[in-house]
Amino acid sequence: MRIFRRTAVIVTSLLLTLGLTACGNAATNSNTKVLKLALEIAPNALTTEMAQKAADQIKEETNGSVTVEIYPSGQLGSQRDFIESMMLGTIEIGYVSASSVENFEPEFVLYDIPFTVFGPEHAEVLWDSEISQQVQQKFLEEQGIRTLGMIDCGPRNIYTTVEVRSAADFSKLTMRTADVAGLINLFNALDANPTVTAFNEIYTAMQTGVVNGFEIGLESVLSNNLQEVVDYCVETCHTYTIDCFLMSERAYQRLTPEEQEIVTRAFEEASTEQRKAFNENLAGYKERLASAGVETIQFSDEEMSKVIEMAQPAIEKSISGIFNTAIVEEIRAMG
């Protein structure tokens, strides 16, 4: 069933590509280049708003020769679908988490090793580091997808309907995770029961009890009204959410050099603005979560040490055969 669903998504993307091109030529007989931008997140999410700003800027600065059409809320599938479609050239731009890229370029685990990145400045230093640029260049050369900008979605915490006040309590959790090996390994190591579920199915899965916990960034909780189906926020800060805009190299090379510069700059500027706005809004996000009746649980230093110790096998497994174990301390030292 999963294979059929993903095949259907790719077919839909192809039809959209053909349909948009045909309609554009019939209606205007112009050479307008249409770039489809796929997101899983809601239309009212901060990053979706920034994507729209980039789209408006691109249309204006290219005098309409390039337009960006935005498809939020998983209309074009999951993040994995976006990446596969960008490789095929049927989706031009996608917004994904760095962790989702690991399925296609394992070295993207660099951005997603548990308990290594501890704040926004730390995340930016990592993104701009030499090793990071090497990883992104390898992804471009081997998979034909380039990075356009880093998005900051803050620390990832756990949201549940059951109390988790100690490391031992993780065994109570049936955790929704994305289809990302690192996350699955982490929650297995913590004695939880990880269950892969599509992002846009989290609300229903929590409502019906299919899962009783999930982990994402706070802004995504609020923009998708997930505070309505949880009682607790467990502040684990197990990873720091580094997301990114990606672009199909096939689509990029169809642009003129001037159009390439405009598209690249528009998404770089939108990403910078998103990071600034997100961190300015973070205190307000926390207030909204509390106002919704969600209790925030903070572990004692002793319990947090136990959690990190339990996670150590998952940390080692996530980088095994990809990076030397010294990379963990190297990243921590960047902060």
Automatic annotation (TrEMBL):
Protein source organism: Flintibacter hominis
Name of the protein in its database record: TRAP transporter substrate-binding protein
Pfam family name, one: DctP
GO BP terms in the entry: transmembrane transport
Membrane-spanning segments: none
Keywords in alphabetical order: Signal, Transport
Segment forming the signal sequence: 1-22
Recorded superkingdom: Bacteria
GO CC annotation, single: outer membrane-bounded periplasmic space
Predominant subcellular localization, coarse grouping: other
Compartments reported by the entry: Cell envelope
Entry's family note: Belongs to the bacterial solute-binding protein 7 family.
InterPro entries linked: DctP_fam (IPR018389), TRAP_DctP (IPR004682), TRAP_DctP_sf (IPR038404)
